[in-house]
UniProtKB/TrEMBL annotation:
<keyword id="KW-0548">Nucleotidyltransferase</keyword>
<protein>
    <recommendedName>
        <fullName>DNA-directed RNA polymerase subunit omega</fullName>
        <ecNumber>2.7.7.6</ecNumber>
    </recommendedName>
</protein>
<dbReference type="Pfam" id="PF01192">
    <property type="entry name" value="RNA_pol_Rpb6"/>
</dbReference>
<comment type="subunit">
    <text>The RNAP catalytic core consists of 2 alpha, 1 beta, 1 beta' and 1 omega subunit. When a sigma factor is associated with the core the holoenzyme is formed, which can initiate transcription.</text>
</comment>
<keyword id="KW-0808">Transferase</keyword>
<dbReference type="InterPro" id="IPR036161">
    <property type="entry name" value="RPB6/omega-like_sf"/>
</dbReference>
<keyword id="KW-0240">DNA-directed RNA polymerase</keyword>
<comment type="similarity">
    <text>Belongs to the RNA polymerase subunit omega family.</text>
</comment>
<dbReference type="InterPro" id="IPR006110">
    <property type="entry name" value="Pol_omega/Rpo6/RPB6"/>
</dbReference>
<keyword id="KW-0804">Transcription</keyword>
<dbReference type="InterPro" id="IPR003716">
    <property type="entry name" value="DNA-dir_RNA_pol_omega"/>
</dbReference>
<dbReference type="GO" id="GO:0000428">
    <property type="term" value="C:DNA-directed RNA polymerase complex"/>
</dbReference>
<comment type="function">
    <text>Promotes RNA polymerase assembly. Latches the N- and C-terminal regions of the beta' subunit thereby facilitating its interaction with the beta and alpha subunits.</text>
</comment>
Length: 76
């Protein structure tokens, strides 16, 4: 069974793509700088799993940009 479960992750971040990109960036950061860990104990051994645990626990939240309708180009 996967930990953390996908429904727990999607309750924090609505987009699966955003979960994947945030987890990948955070995993690279955890790999490069071990002292940046936000949880005291992880279930996962790999950094991607640790990053997903941080997202599920609410320690990591992505900043989603605000989009205005004027930023989209319309074709007539």
């Amino acid at each position: 069974m996967l930990y953390p479960p996908l429904n727990q992750l999607t309750s924090k971040v609505k987009s699966k793509y955003l979960i994947a990109t945030v987890a990948a960036k955070r995993a690279r950061e955890l790999y490069d700088k071990k002292d940046t860990a936000l949880l005291e104990k992880y279930h996962s051994v790999k950094t991607v799993g640790e990053a997903l645990e941080e997202i599920a626990d609410g320690k990591i939240t992505p900043i989603e940009p605000e989009l205005n309708e004027s930023e989209f180009e319309t074709k007539d």
